Amino acid sequence: MTVAIEMRLGIGSYAFPWAIGVPGYPSPEKPLGAMGLLKKAKALAADVVQICDNLPLHNANKGELDELRDAANDIGIRIQIGTRGIRPGHLLIYLEIAKLLGAKILRTTINEPDLKPTIKQAAASIIDVLPKFAGAGISIALENHESYRSRELVNLVEGIHSPNLGICLDTVNSFGALEGPEQTITELAPYALSLHVKDFDVVRVGNQMGFMIVGRPAGEGHLDIEWLFDRVLKEGKEPDAILELWTPFSDGVEDTIHKEEEWASRSMQFLRGKVG
After folding, report:
1. Per-residue model confidence (pLDDT) at position 7
2. How confident is the model at residue 195 (pLDDT cuts 50, 70, 90)?
3. What DSSP string describes the chain?
4. In whole angstroms, what is the distance from residue 226 CA to residue 2 CA?
């Protein structure tokens, strides 16, 4: 069965992390910026671009943000934005950025590299700022990561119970919480405001003692993408489907960037056949 649903298809800045620059690895010769990501989105015929924390928008000035918004409007691509953390002051900075860019979704994570709030602490922070987001018609989408199990995120969203709070459903991240995609998708699909389509494979290590979870182009791994879209559709949800990639490091950063480009092209071609 081929799934054809009304879902906008997009790319995220985590589809091109090597082109942007990955900490701890050699820097690209010409690092990709937000405007460059927008150009890639246009070349891939994407409807949406999600600019996340590996291209931190709070470092841009108003003129740069105005230019980005105008360029996106000119080519008909919608913008979503992303960050990390739920500290109220930080979220309010991104609320202003969202308003300036015309973004209706702010994707964020509860945890930060140096901070892992409890669910109760996260709820208090979100409740503090959510009325201002709701007043602006902008929603917060919490991405699932290994720091919290899906049921904890469901309890958080249900406890606050606002149409302006939901989930950015990532298909792979929750492996770190010992949850496979079937469990993660089933539990989080009813709350999905945004969807990260990230395909994967599970391969045995060379010594046969253990496995690795590795990235694959969309449609070339173990992720059942037709089932994913169908499951989300059955919940009455039509979140933007945002491509992300776990492209492995190859022989140098420039070779890896080239592979990343190939994977993005193959992935978008596959996904266009699944999204109406």
Report:
1. 84
2. very high
3. ----B---EEEEGGGSHHHH--TTSPPPSS---HHHHHHHHHHTT-SEEEE-TTS-GGGS-HHHHHHHHHHHHHHT-EEEEE-S---HHHHHHHHHHHHHHT--EEEE-S-BTTB---HHHHHHHHHHHHHHHHHTT-EEEEEP-TTS-HHHHHHHHHHH--TTEEEEEESSGGGGGT--HHHHHHHHGGGEEEEEE-EEEEEE-TTSS-EEEEEE-TTSSS--HHHHHHHHHHTT---EEEE---PPP-SSHHHHHHHHHHHHHHHHHHHHTTB-
4. 7
Give tens-digit pLDDT for 172-185.
999 999 999 999 99
Domains of the chain: 9-272 (3.20.20.150)
User: What average pLDDT score do residues 231-237 get?
Assistant: 90
Q: How far apart are CA 109 and CA 115, in angstroms?
A: 11
Q: Give me the percent of the chain exceeding a pLDDT of 70.
A: 97
Report CA torsion sign: 176, 182, 183, 185.
positive
Checking if the pLDDT of 1 tops 80, the result is no
pLDDT band at 129 (very low <50, low <70, confident <90, very high): very high
Vertex 115, ends 110 and 118: CA angle to 5°? Answer: 55
Q: Supply 43's token pair.
A: 């070349």
Which amino acid is it at 239? P
Whether the pLDDT of residue 113 is over 90: the answer is: no
